[in-house]
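pasting for ref. prot 1 ->
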Amino acid sequence: MSNDSSPAHEEELDSSVPVDVTREPGAEGGARRSLRVPALSAAAVLAVAIGVGSYVGTQSHPAAHGSSPAAAGPDAYEVFVAAQGGDEVATFNTQTAAAGSYYEADSPAGIALSPDDSTLYVAETGQYAVLAFNVSTRAVTSIHVGAYPQDVAASPDGTTVYATVTGGDTGPGGSDKVAVIDAATKTVTGYITVGTSPRQIVLNSTGSRAYVGTEGGIYVIDTATNKVVGVVKAPSDVQGLALSADGATLYATAPNEGQLLVVSTHTLHVDRTYKAGSEPWSVGVTPDGKKLYVSDTNSNSVSVLDAATGKTITSVTVGSLPTSVGVTPDGSEVWVGNDLTGSLSVISTATDTLVATVPGGTGTTALDSALTDIVFVPAG
């Protein structure tokens, strides 16, 4: 892809599509929502399913990257969903269930919004680029960053975007780099060398520190100088990251060991390790810091842990190969993206039970509309 701008493809929801909704006993309010729709595009499937279930999401985009969530009302949110298998980022409104345009991207992975919600950044793994979409006009600029970018994060002041580049060839960015992008010019201004195969990146609420999970531990970047100022040693690969609301604790998944690492951001040491489920992939922490939710990919479940003790409170069965995890700012729900089934599972934190399932994809392959990231922003 070149770095020019062109309108993104748009698709509208066909309101004539029939939807079958079944309600089953056992969930919050006496019913569990099981929503079934025929095979559609990711945008249409998600919008129809959410609309019929009258689901209202309450997650704002900073929570998706582990920092303190922004305050927002309970109604009217626009949801951006990276559907890697569908080669798109779908959108819809949680209040009206209206599907918006979707954004084409070749195998999108991590996504992020600028602080003013005007620009959508997408790690486009299939084209070695970060895409910067103007949310209002859908115009897009492709920014070449290097092989297989996996995640993106925007600074709180909106001036800088960081993209992890996992590598795979000898092109720009290599296999151990974080690309630094000037948000105004949409150009790469430099690279920060970290560990091999950087994955997720999270910034603290002030934007002064960035934490990057790699094969060799967690690298800590001072964003004022774009220098690595510390490395947190890990037993092996680090995949998922989440920061506590106060920024004092960083949680990291170590899938090979079946562990959750509890890291002090002050000392940059692993203070404790918690036993998680089978191949823990992502982690989310409630705003009050009391509970942790860990997606266990090999057991198709989410482990709920007491953050203070690491004790497993319960395990919630979700879809096949759960990966991405997001906690709403009010702490009432946890959203889980399931790779193999291409669905979203919604968990109530009050009861730690599954309260909704949003289908997507046919569920025949791990690449079929796999939902890799979810961002919620105030609508309008």
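and prot 2 ->
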Amino acid sequence: MRNITIILIALLSIAIQSNAQKFITKSGNITFYSDGPLEKIEARNTQVNSALDIKTGDFVFKVLMKSFVFEKALMQEHFNENYVESDKFPVAILKGKVTNISYDEFSTKGKYDAFVEGELTMHGETHKITANGTFDISKKGIVGISKFKIELADYNISIPGAVTGKIAEEIEISVDVMLKPLNK
């Protein structure tokens, strides 16, 4: 009986330790910005799911496209119906890895420069991306911040002929998440 108790305690300790290596959020922030000759377009999404495994550096972001909010309702409608076709392609997913921060650094308070590599899947297309950012590690969790740009054409998002040349073909994506330990 004593051996069974020791084994159960050991297994429980391993399970708790592996969960302590995972950080998540369901309320991250992603904004995108486009500054074209005709119009500046900006939208924010605060329903971003993200997870980070500090042991491996692996991360994932999942974004519901219809959760982007625009200043003008008509822009939001055009975004969902004409550009990203949210009914057909409801989510964007970014899977990748933090390549320059070790487990020890993720376990130590401080602010660290980060380099991430991954694949962004959006509108049925997947492309590699790289980005710089920062991780600020504290008792409260891990704040991750990054900016990167994508070309709309890479994701088969076309700009209607009537506004070609008036809307930017490249957008800047900003990420700001507060990740908390999975077991808290």
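The radius of gyration is 20 Å.
Confidence is low (pLDDT under 50) at residues 4-19.
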